[in-house]
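re: the backbone from monday

yeah here it is again, tokenized this time
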């Protein structure tokens, strides 16, 4: 059986191996899941699912340091942020339990017509079917929790395929679920090669496909799903920020730095395009450059690291090429703009890239933020809304009327006022518009997606 080598993305040191599943094994997992789902007598009652989830949260809390180090070691997320990810993942498990209190049907009114007289109608919720989750590298534990734990909570068998770069966090989480009492056939760990993964996704036995990753891959897989398979797709964007001329500089700068350079910009809602009144660009550019220069780039397993590596050396090559191209097309380099090693790129700040540069039109997914000057509010809004991506955005202002006007005008699923674009809590809806995704993420919303109503109508 082939194995996948896992390395620390900063120094490329080996940290583990994972045995890959071939199609025969995954085919068996699907058959087993089908039999589980078809036999309603085998469904786990809610109280058993709650017990498993409670024990899972407890085990994760007791092993939080191990989980955080694993996230940093295989995924390159700085340890300080990896600890936050673990805390969020544990909270996500608890949130699944709380959502089950509201995971209910409803009464459907009867007697409103003569035909419906003397009838009682109500709905219940049932699991949708087998869930297949394909995940991304940048939140190797919390994304898995968001895709797998709602399936467990709603009573769906689930097969999870982690990102090739970060399979160890997923593996440990699935082991913890089993340790907590979830029978193995209800959650299968399925690292596999690309052709096998695609075969899994398009199999007609599945009921729901959960995908986090690139738009190119996500939309391609969606086009190949079997008839009747539901799905959610979470892609990325090029998140815009619009800054009013009336603002509090001391409050803005730390948020721009955090939102733009957290996990070296490898976040689907990372701050990327910042629009500033043209006559105030220098006032922001100078101190922002100084804060960017102070960021410490190092191995993510060290507590002092602010920015870790990019996930693969080829991503460093790509970001370097994009920044170089932007400079050739007229952008001014304010800070960074250099390859620190074959795995790391300096936190970078660009001024006024051309609107047709890749850094202006595509998701950078690297430690690069772009500043643009604008003269009129409408100009900034038009530029912010000009791309085929629409996810989260933000506006900074001390004026309520400006904030509300811009928030309403921005084409985004969520607009943060006086905060960065990457803000998220796990119970809020999280959704990309247009090419940025399909469906609504967030624990409760995923549980709704992974279940459906069954209506019962009876005479009396």
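seq for it, each position gets an aa:
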């Amino acid at each position: 059986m082939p194995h996948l080598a896992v390395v620390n993305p900063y120094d490329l040191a080996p940290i583990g191996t994972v045995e890959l599943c071939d199609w025969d094994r995954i085919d068996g997992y699907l058959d087993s899941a089908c039999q589980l789902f078809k036999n309603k007598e085998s469904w786990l009652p809610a109280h058993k699912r709650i017990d498993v989830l409670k024990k899972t949260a407890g085990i994760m809390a007791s092993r939080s340091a191990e989980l955080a180090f694993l996230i940093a070691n295989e995924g390159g997320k700085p340890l300080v942020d990896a600890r936050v990810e673990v805390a969020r993942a544990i909270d996500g498990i608890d949130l699944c339990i709380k959502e089950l209190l509201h995971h209910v049907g409803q009464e459907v009114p009867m007697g409103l017509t003569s035909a419906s007289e003397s009838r009682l109608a109500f709905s219940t919720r049932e699991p949708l079917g087998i869930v297949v989750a394909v995940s991304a590298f940048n939140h190797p534990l919390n994304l898995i929790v968001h895709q797998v734990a709602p399936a467990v909570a709603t009573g769906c068998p689930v097969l999870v395929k982690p990102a090739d770069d970060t399979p160890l966090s997923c593996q440990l989480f699935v082991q913890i679920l089993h340790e907590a009492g979830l029978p193995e056939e209800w959650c299968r760990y399925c690292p596999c090669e690309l052709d096998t993964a695609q075969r899994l996704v398009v199999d007609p036995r599945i009921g729901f496909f959960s995908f986090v990753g690139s738009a190119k891959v996500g939309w391609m897989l969606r086009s190949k799903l079997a008839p009747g398979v539901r799905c959610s797709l979470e892609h990325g964007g090029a998140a815009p920020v619009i800054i009013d001329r009336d603002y509090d500089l001391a409050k803005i700068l730390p948020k721009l730095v955090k939102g733009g350079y957290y996990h070296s910009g490898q976040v689907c809602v990372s701050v990327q395009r910042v629009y500033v009144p043209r006559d105030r660009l220098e006032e922001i550019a100078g101190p922002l450059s100084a804060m960017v220069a102070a960021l410490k780039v190092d191995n993510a397993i060290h507590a002092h690291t602010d920015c870790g590596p990019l996930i693969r050396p080829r991503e460093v090559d790509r970001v370097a090429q994009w920044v170089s191209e932007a400079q050739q097309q007229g952008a001014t380099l304010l800070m960074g703009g250099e390859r620190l090693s074959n795995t790391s790129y300096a936190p970078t700040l660009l001024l006024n890239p051309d609107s047709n540069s890749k850094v202006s039109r595509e998701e950078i997914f690297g430690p690069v933020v772009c500043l643009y000057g604008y003269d009129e509010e409408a100009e900034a809004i038009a530029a912010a809304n000009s791309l085929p991506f629409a996810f989260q955005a933000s506006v900074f202002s001390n004026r309520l009327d400006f904030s509300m006007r811009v928030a309403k005008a921005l084409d985004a699923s969520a607009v943060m006022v006086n905060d960065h674009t990457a803000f998220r809590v796990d119970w809020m809806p999280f959704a990309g518009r247009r090419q940025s995704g399909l469906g609504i993420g967030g624990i409760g919303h995923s549980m709704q997606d992974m279940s459906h109503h069954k209506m019962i109508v009876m005479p009396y």
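The domain at 3-235+436-459 is CATH 3.40.605.10 (Aldehyde Dehydrogenase; Chain A, domain 1). Residues 79-100 form the longest helix (22 residues).
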